[in-house]
């Protein structure tokens, strides 16, 4: 059975090009061009990943991704013609797994799709199931499934804080207060950088098992069940 990819793109030439390259890579492709058709297509087709243009008629990709993330972990790669950093940041905060700026290489998109599919695939190696985190407060060390995480002091405190109440949503300003003890004037966005680095290090030990999730407009939560 071919891996099914849904492409939401209203520019016919781009949609056809993307479909051709994904098809040549052995994937089955469905295309929608209207923002209002994306979520119904996701429900109907149950694709393995969604390639989602930010600017779609009748409903934009940002709001689609926001609603999708309320109930689904479907891998999403966002396409945007606007390269401003705020667009990229918003896309990832909304729960997108990756993004590409137009114009982009179709080969690069195929590579990104394959990458998110690998990260989202069920893991059969190792213990599987629920990750097991252990915290050594005296030494400020953390391990997951017996593998030590090479964390900075701030990353350690961030992880320890999130682990205290799995599933709880922590605001950015709340996390700053909990992980910094010297009350420096620091932007709330600083926490995004620390979370990104922490996620990357955990990903090495738990490939394809994301545990820290962004909650749009609020902050972050850790899920290990």
Overall description:
It contains 8 helices and 11 strands. The protein is an alpha/beta fold and 225 residues long. The chain has 2 domains: 118 residues, 3-Layer(aba) Sandwich (Rossmann fold); 90 residues, Arc Repressor Mutant, subunit A (Orthogonal Bundle). The strands form 3 sheets. A 5-stranded parallel sheet has the order 2-1-3-4-5, sandwiched between helices. A 3-stranded antiparallel sheet has the order 6-7-8, with helices on one face. A 3-stranded antiparallel sheet has the order 9-11-10. Helix 6 crosses helix 8. The protein is elongated. The protein starts with a strand and ends with a strand. About 3% of the residues have low confidence.
Low-confidence stretches: 122-127
Main sheet? 5 strands, parallel
Give the structural class.
alpha/beta
Distance between the termini: 29 Å
């Amino acid at each position: 059975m071919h891996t099914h990819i849904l492409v939401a793109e209203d520019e016919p030439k781009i949609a056809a090009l993307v479909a051709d390259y994904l098809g040549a890579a052995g994937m089955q492709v469905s295309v929608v061009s209207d923002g209002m058709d994306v979520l119904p297509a996701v429900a109907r087709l149950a694709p393995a990943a969604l390639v989602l243009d930010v600017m779609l008629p009748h409903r934009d990709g940002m709001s689609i991704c926001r609603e999708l993330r309320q109930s689904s972990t479907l891998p999403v790669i966002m396409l945007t013609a606007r390269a401003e950093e705020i667009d990229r940041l918003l896309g990832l905060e909304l729960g997108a797994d990756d993004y590409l700026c137009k114009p982009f290489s179709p080969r690069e998109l195929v590579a990104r799709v394959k990458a998110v599919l690998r990260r989202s695939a069920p893991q059969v190696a190792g213990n599987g199931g629920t990750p097991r985190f252990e915290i050594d407060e005296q030494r400020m060390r953390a391990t997951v499934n017996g593998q030590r995480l090479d964390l900075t002091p701030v990353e350690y405190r961030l992880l320890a804080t999130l682990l205290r109440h799995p599933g709880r949503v922590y605001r950015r300003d709340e996390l700053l207060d909990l992980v910094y003890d010297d009350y420096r004037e620091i932007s709330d966005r600083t926490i995004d950088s620390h979370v990104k680095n922490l996620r990357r290090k955990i990903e090495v030990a738990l490939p394809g098992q994301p545990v820290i999730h962004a909650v749009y407009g609020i902050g972050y939560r850790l899920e290990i069940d």
